[in-house]
């Protein structure tokens, strides 16, 4: 493909931009937001995501600005936060990458954007796609900007426009993300000394109380609860609510709670959703990837990893097939739909067990996902 339009500058869109610009295509990314406004929280990235970042040429920068570890601890609620288990995590990307790295999301977005631009991709912020038409010659996007409505025609359009994807609706795919009953508070805080890997507490008033280090001095902490209507909550209100919910948790949560009580700048709240498009992800020369095609609760921390893998496989099939043929799409869907579906189903199963207060074979599911995503996509 010589001329590609990408809708959305999230992980999926920027990964696609990097790969296709690197292969010599003329790439334009249309992003509705006026700038890269990634949510100011953290992200947990497993080894397969880190391996993918290496392929994108950003692993060294990601490594330098993230916090790597190979262990996860499980603790019980209570003032002493008793240790239940300490697990050595599989290195899902292979021995060259740590099992897990935590990172501040805006840092990741900045690194990916810089790489895409260095390779020649053009990013048009403040440009919302509102319609798409296609014929044998190309797909035309209708773009709403402050300067009015414009059009742009591309050989291929990649709809990487997230959960509420406009492109998905515009090409007639009806599958939509559904809330699964849970909501999550996330706060970006200072990392207490000794908090050097993810710790999860199951039980107490929240389903999960967890944290993940993101740098020498930073980490993000989260609490998963039954979903509530918390729209319009200010950071001050979010900090106070989170501090209150965190009261029964001890250990490093004492230091986290003290920060929340004093007020934390980056606090957000969102509902868990789930969906997977099991029919083809393309209509003609328009395809959806990333959260537009699949979403899941972050219980196996694979959402962004799967989004970036979509981009890797799309880049690979485009490089090996001549034109947008049936064979290309069959290979793309054959490599992506089953893998993404397995990840979504496993993530949902874990939240179903949590919602039902059932013990379930969580470890077994983690092993299944670990074996799956260890393999190249
Ligand atoms: C609470 C929570 C925690 C998570 N934690 C993790 C984790 O720890 N690890 C992990 O791997 N994943 C995690 N995920 C999942 C991960 O965040 C997503 O899977 C990933 O960010 C999806 O990337 P994307 O590029 O597909 O979509 P997005 O990042 O949503 O990007 C879509 C972009 O498209 C733009 N856009 C939308 N509509 C239009 C339009 N009409 N025109 C132009 N632009 C448009 C948006 O502004 C946005 O910038 C988590 C998700 C949630 C909800």
From TrEMBL:
Keyword Cell inner membrane: no
Protein name: FAD-dependent monooxygenase
Taxonomic classification: Bacteria, Bacillati, Actinomycetota, Actinomycetes, Micrococcales
A GO term for molecular function: monooxygenase activity
Organism, scientific name: Promicromonospora aerolata
Keyword terms, alphabetized: Monooxygenase, Oxidoreductase
Domain of life: Bacteria
Classification via InterPro entries: FAD-bd, FAD-dep_Monooxygenase_BioMet, FAD/NAD-bd_sf
Domain FAD-binding: from-to ranges: 3-346
């Amino acid at each position: 493909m010589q001329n590609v339009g990408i809708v959305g500058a999230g992980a999926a869109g920027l990964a696609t931009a990097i790969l296709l610009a690197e292969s010599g295509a003329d790439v334009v990314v249309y992003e509705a937001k006026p700038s890269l406004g990634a949510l100011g929280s953290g992200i947990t990235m497993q080894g397969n995501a880190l391996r993918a970042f290496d392929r994108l040429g950003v692993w060294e920068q990601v490594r330098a600005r993230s916090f790597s570890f190979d262990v996860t601890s499980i603790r019980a609620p209570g003032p002493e936060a008793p240790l239940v288990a300490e697990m050595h995590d599989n290195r899902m990307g292979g021995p060259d990458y740590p099992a897990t790295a935590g990172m501040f999301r805006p840092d990741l977005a900045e690194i990916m954007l810089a790489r895409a631009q260095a390779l020649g991709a053009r990013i048009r912020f403040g440009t919302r796609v509102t319609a798409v038409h296609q014929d044998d010659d190309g797909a035309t996007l209708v773009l709403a900007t402050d300067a009015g409505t414009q059009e742009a025609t591309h050989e291929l359009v990649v709809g990487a426009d997230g959960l509420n994807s406009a492109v998905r609706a515009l090409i007639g795919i009806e599958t939509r993300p559904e809330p699964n009953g849970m909501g999550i508070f996330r706060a970006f805080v200072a990392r207490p000394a000794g908090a050097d890997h993810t710790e999860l507490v199951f039980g107490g008033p929240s389903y999960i109380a967890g944290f993940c280090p993101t740098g020498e001095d930073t980490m993000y902490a989260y609490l998963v609860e039954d979903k509530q209507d918390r729209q319009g909550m200010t950071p001050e209100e979010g900090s106070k609510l989170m501090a209150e919910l965190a009261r029964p948790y001890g250990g490093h949560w004492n230091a986290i709670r003290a920060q929340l009580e004093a007020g934390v700048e980056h606090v957000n709240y969102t509902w868990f959703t789930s969906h997977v498009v099991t029919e083809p992800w393309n209509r003609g020369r328009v395809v959806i990837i990333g959260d537009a095609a699949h979403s899941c609760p972050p219980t196996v921390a694979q959402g962004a990893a799967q989004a970036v893998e979509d981009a890797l496989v799309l880049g690979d099939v485009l490089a090996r097939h001549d034109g947008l043929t049936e064979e290309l799409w069959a290979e793309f869907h054959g490599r992506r739909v089953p893998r993404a579906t397995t990840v979504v189903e496993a993530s949902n199963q874990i939240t179903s067990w949590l919602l039902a207060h059932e013990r379930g074979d969580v470890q077994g599911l983690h092993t299944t996902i670990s074996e799956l995503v260890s393999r190249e996509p």
